[in-house]
Amino acid sequence: MKLSKLLNCLNEYTVGTSQYSDVNITGIQMDSRKVVKGDLFVAISGFESDGHKFIEQAIVNGASAVVGEQSLSLKVPYFIVNNSRLALGRLASMFFDFPSKRKKVIGITGTNGKTTVSYMLKHILESNGFSTALFGTVSYTVNNQVYESTNTTPNPIQLQELLAKSLDEFAILEVSSHALTQARIEGLEIDYGLFTNLSHEHLDYHGNMQAYFKAKASMYNFLKPDGKALVSEFDFWGDKLSNVLGRKEIPVRTLGCSGNHKLIIEKINLNGETEFTVAIAENNYNINLPCPGLHNVYNAALAFLTAYEIGINPKQIVKALESFPGVPGRFEVVQHPRGAKFIIDYAHTKDAFEFCLQTAKEHKAKKITHIYGFRGGRDKMKRENMIKASSSMCDHFILTLDDLNGIEKEEMLNELSKLNLQFGQNKGKVIADRTIAIQTAWKKAQAGEWIFITGKGPEEYETEFTLPVSSDKEVLTYLQEGISEHFA
C-alpha cells in the first residue's frame, strides 16, 4: 500500500522530515527486531521500554518510513502523531483493509467469565453451522487453526492480520481492560458488545474501580452504527453500564433474575445439577447445563441472549448449551482414585473464588481444600480479601507460589506467611513448591472431598518446581499415572 494512502486513516500528523517520498509500504511493525525492508515502523512509548530508542535499528533493518511522537530528524519519511498507540491501531486496520467490517464481531469484556462465555458462544455458533474465530486467554483460533495466545487480547498488528486471514463468519474477542487502555482494539468494529461483571482486579494498573469501569465501558466506543450492547445486570456495575450506554442512545439488551430485562433467569436448581429456565419474548426454555455453578448459569444466559439476538433458534441454543464440552482450565475436573474431585480453574479474584467454592457446597462436598498463590508484580490490594474468602468457605487451604514475575521468592513466601497468619483462621499453611502442594493434597484426598487448584488454569509454569511437569493439569496426570495403582 502506498504510504500516502495508508496515512489517510490518521486524523492529523506532522511531517517530521524535509523530504517525503511516497514509498510503498509492505508491512507494519512495532518491534524493531521484526522490521524488514519496506515496513512502516511505529515507535510506541511502552511501560518497560521506549520504541523511539529503536528507530535507528528499525531503519538499519529496512524500515521505509517511521511514525512516532517525538521531534526527530531521520533519513526516511517520518511522521509525528500525538498518540502512537492510537495511530498503530488505525494504521493496522487500514493496511489490512478493515477486516472487522467483513464479519460479525463479538467483543466480551468484564472481570470474570469472558473465556467461558466466548467458548459457549463459539460452540453455539458452530453447532448451528457458523464458522467462528476466537481470540482469548487460552488461545487464538482462526480458520480452525490454533495459535498460541500472547495476551488475552492480541496487539493491533496481530489482531488485524489474523482477522484479515480469517474466512470465518464470526469473530469472538475477549477484550481486557489493559487492551482497551493500550488501544489494542483501535481500528476494530464490533457488532455485539458483551459485559459479564466487574470486581476488584487490576487496581494496581487502573488505580480504582471507577477507572477500571471506565476502561471496560470504553469497549462500546467501538460498536458499529447498528451494534448492540448485551449487559449482565447481576451486580452494581452492570446496572451502571446500562445507564451510561442508555444516555449515549446505544441499544442495550439486559439480563437478570428479576425486573424489566430482555432475558430473565428463573427456577435455578444447583442441588447436584445445574438446571435453570430462561424467559425471553414470552417463552420459557429449560436448560440442563453440564458446567456446575451459579456463575456458569450467568455465563450461559449471556451466551443464550447473544445467540438469540444473532437470530439462532432458541431450541437450538438450548441443545448446544446442553452439549457444551467446557473450557480447558475452567472448572476442569480430575477424579481421584479414592473418590475425591480435583478441580483446576483460572480463578484469581475474590468473586471467582467464591463462585468455585460455593459450587462445591451446592454439590454437598464433604470437605473443601483450596490450593493457590499470588502472582508477583500484580495487585496486592485484593490478596487479603481472597484469603478471607478462601478461609471462610474452605476446610483447609494451601498457599503456594504462582509466577513470581521478578519478585524474590523469599519476599513472596514472607507475604504468604504473613497473610495466612493474619487472615487464615488457622486453616491454612504455606508450601512453597506448587507441585509438592498439589501432591500433598493428592496423598491426603478422601472420598467426597473437593480440592481446588486455582490461578493458572491451562497456563504453563514460569517457575521451576520439583516434579517434572509444566502445568497444574500435568501434575495431576503425573500423580494419576504414578500413584493410582496404590489406591486400586
TrEMBL record:
InterPro entries: Folylpolyglutamate_synth_CS, Mur-like_cat_sf, Mur_ligase_C, Mur_ligase_C_dom_sf, Mur_ligase_cen, Mur_ligase_N, MurE/MurF_N, UDP-N-AcMur-Glu-dNH2Pim_ligase. GO terms for molecular function: ATP binding; tetrahydrofolylpolyglutamate synthase activity. Transmembrane segments: none annotated. PROSITE patterns: FOLYLPOLYGLU_SYNT_1. It is found in: Cytoplasm. Gene3D superfamilies: Mur ligase, C-terminal domain, Mur-like, catalytic domain, MurE/MurF, N-terminal domain. One of its GO terms (cellular component) is cytoplasm. Residues 329-457 form the Mur ligase C-terminal domain. The keyword Cell cycle applies. It comes from the Bacteria. Pathway: Cell wall biogenesis; peptidoglycan biosynthesis. GO terms for biological process: cell division; cell wall organization; peptidoglycan biosynthetic process; regulation of cell shape. Keywords: ATP-binding, Cell cycle, Cell division, Cell shape, Cell wall biogenesis/degradation, Cytoplasm, Ligase, Nucleotide-binding, Peptidoglycan synthesis. Pfam families: Mur_ligase, Mur_ligase_C, Mur_ligase_M. Residues 108-306 form the Mur ligase central domain. Residues 25-80 form the Mur ligase N-terminal catalytic domain. Belongs to the MurCDEF family. MurE subfamily. This is UDP-N-acetylmuramoylalanyl-D-glutamate--2,6-diaminopimelate ligase. It comes from Mesobacillus persicus.
